[in-house]
């Protein structure tokens, strides 16, 4: 990681450069994704089975995980880990229950009754990455808020192994969290299956969950036919540290995020040259102890950075331009600095609130906006699985009082049918 002294004038330039670091030619991926999605949309289940065989190297009799497979998975997983999943689920459930909105109605004036009806999205699809890795935490973070919202059907889809089976941990977490169905379909073909359905599976109304470039582009391609949560990029952490921060802990937290993949971004912003130097040395030392050293080297040396600022206010200005996915405040009195943060996906306060706490345990969602999108979007939540309808009621007297004004609007817009719709009620 390189140490760079920056000034206020560098902020926009740094933010632009970091946003562009992920830019790549997606033409080939888009062409493949469009072909897969269109094929499944047209041909349904036979096309899905072909892609499972071609892309996943597996042959399956059924796309849907059976009750017998679910029971076998539950018996396979360590009971102690099941207890951990149950505890994590309880924490996530408790936090997300606080997000649930209620319908409301207001008696505006005589004869006028207005409101907002809040209802759950009935059928949702959850994409869970798989293949070489397994992510039961991602299952919980997506299924639990959908369940809290009141979704009737929650369909999890995840890549199948070469043996035609889904990882037992994914099955166990899905069942525990409240999924109603589990599918053996990953990649772009998994997204298309959720979006357009197959013989015994109706299309969902919204898809959430992270994935690789093929999954992300497929979500973008089906958006409009179904809703999606976000287009997530590589994971990010930004640590703001003052001279009181512990370099050993900072280095450990940067490494924890960088080990996700080669494109993961780990950044330190500090007003202390000594902290910057010590963290750089600690990163090099601790990296030698980690099992994913080859990924860490690529991530930290190509995507990582240490920025030294003249004071923390400049540091927070940089943070708000970067709008990081994860932000750690390792400063004296972090609660006092919280108001300086305007753009971040999740904010971790103090040295005993490291980012992995949010990944697995605390309760807030770990599906977060990346690549600067925290400037305008939020973590996944119960609100992503609910929708709102406006409710309007006027009685005769109330409409009569507003009739002339409505007709004037209609006349000005040249929509005489709108005016007639009002006028005929009083002829």
UniProtKB/TrEMBL annotation:
<feature type="binding site">
    <location>
        <position position="260"/>
    </location>
    <ligand>
        <name>Zn(2+)</name>
    </ligand>
</feature>
<keyword id="KW-0862">Zinc</keyword>
<feature type="active site" description="Proton acceptor">
    <location>
        <position position="325"/>
    </location>
</feature>
<comment type="pathway">
    <text>Amino-acid biosynthesis; L-histidine biosynthesis; L-histidine from 5-phospho-alpha-D-ribose 1-diphosphate: step 9/9.</text>
</comment>
<dbReference type="InterPro" id="IPR012131">
    <property type="entry name" value="Hstdl_DH"/>
</dbReference>
<keyword id="KW-0479">Metal-binding</keyword>
<dbReference type="Pfam" id="PF00815">
    <property type="entry name" value="Histidinol_dh"/>
</dbReference>
<dbReference type="InterPro" id="IPR016161">
    <property type="entry name" value="Ald_DH/histidinol_DH"/>
</dbReference>
<feature type="binding site">
    <location>
        <position position="359"/>
    </location>
    <ligand>
        <name>substrate</name>
    </ligand>
</feature>
<feature type="binding site">
    <location>
        <position position="359"/>
    </location>
    <ligand>
        <name>Zn(2+)</name>
    </ligand>
</feature>
<dbReference type="InterPro" id="IPR022695">
    <property type="entry name" value="Histidinol_DH_monofunct"/>
</dbReference>
<comment type="function">
    <text>Catalyzes the sequential NAD-dependent oxidations of L-histidinol to L-histidinaldehyde and then to L-histidine.</text>
</comment>
<feature type="binding site">
    <location>
        <position position="257"/>
    </location>
    <ligand>
        <name>substrate</name>
    </ligand>
</feature>
<keyword id="KW-0028">Amino-acid biosynthesis</keyword>
<keyword id="KW-0520">NAD</keyword>
<feature type="binding site">
    <location>
        <position position="418"/>
    </location>
    <ligand>
        <name>Zn(2+)</name>
    </ligand>
</feature>
<feature type="binding site">
    <location>
        <position position="418"/>
    </location>
    <ligand>
        <name>substrate</name>
    </ligand>
</feature>
<feature type="binding site">
    <location>
        <position position="413"/>
    </location>
    <ligand>
        <name>substrate</name>
    </ligand>
</feature>
<feature type="binding site">
    <location>
        <position position="260"/>
    </location>
    <ligand>
        <name>substrate</name>
    </ligand>
</feature>
<feature type="binding site">
    <location>
        <position position="235"/>
    </location>
    <ligand>
        <name>substrate</name>
    </ligand>
</feature>
<keyword id="KW-0368">Histidine biosynthesis</keyword>
<feature type="active site" description="Proton acceptor">
    <location>
        <position position="326"/>
    </location>
</feature>
<feature type="binding site">
    <location>
        <position position="257"/>
    </location>
    <ligand>
        <name>Zn(2+)</name>
    </ligand>
</feature>
<protein>
    <recommendedName>
        <fullName>Histidinol dehydrogenase</fullName>
        <ecNumber>1.1.1.23</ecNumber>
    </recommendedName>
</protein>
<comment type="similarity">
    <text>Belongs to the histidinol dehydrogenase family.</text>
</comment>
<feature type="binding site">
    <location>
        <position position="326"/>
    </location>
    <ligand>
        <name>substrate</name>
    </ligand>
</feature>
<dbReference type="GO" id="GO:0004399">
    <property type="term" value="F:histidinol dehydrogenase activity"/>
</dbReference>
<dbReference type="InterPro" id="IPR001692">
    <property type="entry name" value="Histidinol_DH_CS"/>
</dbReference>
<keyword id="KW-0560">Oxidoreductase</keyword>
């Amino acid at each position: 990681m390189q140490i760079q002294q920056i000034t206020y004038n560098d902020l926009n330039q740094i933010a632009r450069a970091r946003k562009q670091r992920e830019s790549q030619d997606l033409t080939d991926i888009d062409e493949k994704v469009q072909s897969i999605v269109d094929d499944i949309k047209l041909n349904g289940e036979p096309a899905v089975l072909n892609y499972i065989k071609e892309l996943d190297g597996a042959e399956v009799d059924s796309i849907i995980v059976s009750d017998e497979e679910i029971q076998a998975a539950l018996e396979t997983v360590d009971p102690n880990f099941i207890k951990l999943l149950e505890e994590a689920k309880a924490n996530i459930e408790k936090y997300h229950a606080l997000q649930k909105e209620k319908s409301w109605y207001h008696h505006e004036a005589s004869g006028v009754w207005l409101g907002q009806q809040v209802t759950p999205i009935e059928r949702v699809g959850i994409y869970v990455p798989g293949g070489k890795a397994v992510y039961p935490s991602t299952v919980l973070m997506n299924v639990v808020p959908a369940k809290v919202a009141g979704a009737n059907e929650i369909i999890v889809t995840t890549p199948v192994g070469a043996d035609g089976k889904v990882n037992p941990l994914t099955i166990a977490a899905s069942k525990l969290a409240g999924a109603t169905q589990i599918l053996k379909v990953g990649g772009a073909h998994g997204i298309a299956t959720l979006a357009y359905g197959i013989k015994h599976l109706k299309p969902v109304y919204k898809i959430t969950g992270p994935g690789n470039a093929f999954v992300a582009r497929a979500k973008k391609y089906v958006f409009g036919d179904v809703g999606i949560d976000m287009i997530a990029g590589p994971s990010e952490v930004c640590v703001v540290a003052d001279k009181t921060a512990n370099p050993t802990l900072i280095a450990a937290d940067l490494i924890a995020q960088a080990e996700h993949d080669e494109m993961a971004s780990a950044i330190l912003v500090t007003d202390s040259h000594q902290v910057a130097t010590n963290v750089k040395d600690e990163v090099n030392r601790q990296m030698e102890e980690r099992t994913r050293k080859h990924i860490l080297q690529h991530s930290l040396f190509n995507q990582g950075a240490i920025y030294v600022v003249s004071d923390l206010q400049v540091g927070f200005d940089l943070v708000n331009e970067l709008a990081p996915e994860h932000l750690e405040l390792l400063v004296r009195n972090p609660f006092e600095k919280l108001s300086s943060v305007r753009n971040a996906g999740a904010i971790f306060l103090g040295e005993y609130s490291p980012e992995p706490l949010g990944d697995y345990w605390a309760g807030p969602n770990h599906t977060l906006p990346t690549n600067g999108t925290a400037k305008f979007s939020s973590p996944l939540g119960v609100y992503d699985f609910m929708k709102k309808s406006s409710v309007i009621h006027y009685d005769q007297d109330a409409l009569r009082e507003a009739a002339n004004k409505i007709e004037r609007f209609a006349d000005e817009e040249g929509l005489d049918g709108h005016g007639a719709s009002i006028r005929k009620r009083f002829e």
